[in-house]
Request: fold
Amino acid sequence: MESGEIYINESSVRIEDVVPHEDEKERASGCYIMSLVAVMIGLPMPIINLLATGIFYLMSRKGTFFVRWNSIQALVSQVPLFIMNNILFWWTIRILFCYIDLSSAYIAYFITVNLYNIYDFIETVRSAVNTRKGKVHKWHLYGTITDKICKR
Amino acid sequence: MKKILKEFLISALLFFGTLYVTLQVDWMKALHLYPTIVGDKLSEWVWKISEMSLRKVNDHDVCAPIDSLVSEMCKANGISTADIHVVITRDDEVNAYATVGNHLIINTALIEKMKNESQLCAVIAHEMAHFRLGHIQSAVRQQTIITVFLALITGNGNSNMLANLTNKIISNSITRAKEDEADEQGARYLHAMHLDPMEMANTLETFESYGVLSYFMDHSDSKKRAEHIRKMHFKKNGPYQQILSEEAWVRLKKACL
Ligand SMILES: [Zn+2]
Reply:
């Protein structure tokens, strides 16, 4: 993806090298806080989570590189979570409504997804705190993906 | 791109690795859970409430002969008597039905109308077949929760309403095909306990007007169902037996009047 045709210098700026302004820090941090709040409100309904982060992304799309990068990372990290939680959600509903039986496989999946949720939660808190301080917290995989999609 | 792929593989490996490890544990056993725990617990609850609207009969003259008929049927067909709970209720409606928690309800009016023990057994066999074929369980488990929600919404959990609703839900789920299946299976039960399986067909025809053995509002299909049974072939199974003594049968009928 060779996208930086003219502004080769600017597009090669890495997120780690950006020195954000105070208001940028606040907005970027807001993206993560948004997804944290959404997790708490929308725990049983995973769609709310993704929707909230998505809306925040749309709002910060016109923002500076620092804000954009962080809002994209917040969004990207929500996608797999959304899929996993969705499966868990409907699986649970089906069990509650007695369409299928409670099984060991369900409990195994429940534990795995919850572990992943905890990991995601911790990473989100770390990101929120770090961006507030003006530092970038790059997640495993999602940070790399964000680097790919978010150019200056 | 290579980096993404590498990191993606690590993430996927971690995720599925965790899933794989957690899958190795038999959680159901470790946590003492039963597969149908939710549905069964709810069924129990619904039964407890709907039970209150029933006028149970505890008369020995009624319970003892019915019990011996049921246990005879269970024994002949390898069914555990603990799997089925027969409840006799004083009710003017000529009816018998299978409901939540493996409860088989027989109204006294039905017993009073029966010509002989074979016909009574035919009714019991048909309902028992519904249980054994899983017709009731699947219906109940899938829809009990809806009943429960309705009960919660309307408040107080009126037992009469709940009982009616439960029966409506069960009857809605029983299709014509399932009725035929239950008729067939019931006839086999009769045959196994040395009773005339054709009594199933007779009972269907005789009690057509009452809607016995039929969960449908229109009972026009009883004739067809009877024909279906008459087409079945049974091996000779020795002479038909008489389970209850003449005296016990008369007393039973009298007690149900
Ligand atoms: Zn039936």
